[in-house]
Amino acid sequence: MPRGHLTYEDRRKIAEGLAGKLTYAEIARRLERPRSTIGREIARNGGPHGYHAARAQQAAEWRARRRPNPPSTTQASADADGRDPQAVRELEERLTARFGGIPTMAARVMACLFVSDTGHMTVAELTERMGVSPASISKGVGWLEQVGLVKRERDNRRERYTIDADVWYRAWLVGMRSMTLWADTVRDGVDVLGAHTPAGIRLRTASRFFDLISSDMAQAAEHYRRTFSDAGGRPQGQETTW
User: Fold this and answer.
1) How far apart are CA 111 and CA 137, in angstroms?
2) Is the bond leading into 235 cis (omega within 30 degrees of zero)?
3) Which residues contact 176 (CB under 8 A, 6 or more apart)?
4) What is the predicted pLDDT for the residue at 73?
5) Residues 6+ apart with CB under 8 A from 233
């Protein structure tokens, strides 16, 4: 398979392949490129539903202009803990793809923070690692802050964005809120459409479903909170009653 950077023609064919519902493996075969290369290219440029050849080419050119000097052979082969940097990058991309329901840039930021040992990074560090503009980072972080998945902390004159061990607990609470809102909204719809009409009956059934899911999620969250509190871990003092 050929090595080297993807060209605009390659990216145009990737976009055509996505539009044609081809798998990553099929696109890679047609371009005679590794599947991992195609997966990284799509993940870092909007995902399968937001990929555009022209924008991807512009982003690649922007990254090339600001790319630092290549690391030494030792740095390229393993980090301080002996981990393969390429494998870590591929893990980030898989996590990004699995964060369903999260905007692509927010998912990429979350994946970067999640695999970092410190759990926190500055805008400059995220920009260098992800190869995107600070404005893109800010947009992704803004969404994550809004739903409580990332915290902003001041480090002298710099801001750091932090993800901690409780992130999945907080994400679960966000999901609970969503289920509660769905149940309330659908229940209101029953009053609007009429409890005995076909549409009203359909919405009443949906309301019961969301109520049940919300209750189950609340019990699971409370079980997690009590288990970790009793063990001296986290989280503590979180309310799970809605």
Assistant:
1) 13
2) yes
3) 214, 217, 218, 221, 240, 242
4) 40
5) none
Mean predicted lDDT score pLDDT of the chain? 80
Mean pLDDT across the stretch 198-226?
88
CA 83 to chain CA mean position, Å:
22
Which SS3 state, helix, strand or coil, does residue 160 take? strand
- Checking if the pLDDT of 18 tops 70, the result is yes
* pLDDT tens profile 164-178: 777 778 778 777 887
| Burial 35-50, CB ≥16 within 10 A → b, else e | eebbbbbbbbbebeee
Residues whose CB falls within 8 Å of the CB of residue 187, separated by 6 or more in sequence, listed in order: 203, 204, 207
* Helical H segments across the chain, by residue range: 8-19, 24-31, 35-43, 53-66, 73-77, 85-98, 104-115, 123-130, 134-146, 167-193, 198-230
Tens of pLDDT, residue by residue over 46-77, are: 888 889 998 888 888 877 765 554 444 434 44
Q: Which of 146, 118, 7 is nearest to 64 (CA)?
A: 7
Position 82: which residue type? G
Closest Cα partner for 184 from 242, 101, 100, 102? 242
Q: What are the φ/ψ torsions at residue 204 (nearest 5 degrees)?
A: -65, -40
Is the pLDDT at 13 greater than 90? The verdict is yes
Rounded to two decimals, the pTM is 0.52
